[in-house]
TrEMBL record:
Protein name per its UniProtKB record: Thioredoxin-related transmembrane protein 2
Keyword tags: Membrane, Transmembrane, Transmembrane helix
Superkingdom of this protein's organism: Eukaryota
Species of provenance: Brassica carinata (Ethiopian mustard)
Gene3D superfamilies xrefs: Glutaredoxin (3.40.30.10)
Annotated TM spans: 77-105
Record InterPro entries: Thioredoxin-like_sf (IPR036249)
Keyword Transmembrane: yes
Amino acid sequence: MEKKREGVIEETSLIVSDPFYFLHLWPSSLTFRFAPPQHSTLSHRLFDREIQTFLAFLMLEETWETFVADSLLYAKIFLIAVTLIMDYRVAIWFCVIFSVIYLLAQQPAFSKLGTAKKLTPMQLEDLLSDGTTTKYWLIEFYACSSSKCVRSSRCFPDLSITYSDNLLFFGTIDLGLFPNTATKFGISLAGGMSQLPTYILFEKGVEVSRFPDFYVDAAPSLPITKKLLCQHFELDRLLLDYINGS
């Protein structure tokens, strides 16, 4: 209970202190709907539909980063649509303000690593060159400047806490800091880093599986979720193998 309370306090502190949340929240907070009293019945029905939509939205969002990013985006779209009906000049000003905010403040990635290890290219090479080991390594290749990596940044630490053991280890390497490593593993950084994040499972230093499984010019189409990564790399099976001692 104490750890959960500390987590809530930390998230609240992040919202207050980080420029992204501070700058993006204040204009989005203007997005409220006021229904005229004479249409109270229609307003009540509309409110019920809004509740249903909001609950469905919560079910589709897996991480806090994705939820916040999508919520702020939809709030801005709604606010611009409303002001466009009222006065197009106000809508234009909002578009300018939102554009400036987007350029000045980028969403921060999830800061914790779980049990994953942050690796350098040399450390990764040492791990993969040790051919005598029977360990599995699941490596995340990411870049903090990629919005996709930010939105899915919580998935990998959460998976590492659940599935990390003496058989399976987790590691991350920042291709924003070490771009030359991308070429070695067939990851393209062109096109706005559309191939990131990339996850590769190594067994005895040899690649056995990768997600997204695509060629150089292809881009992943599915959103990164914990369930998707767990199924693709069969993490439940690896955990059972460890428990059964196989």
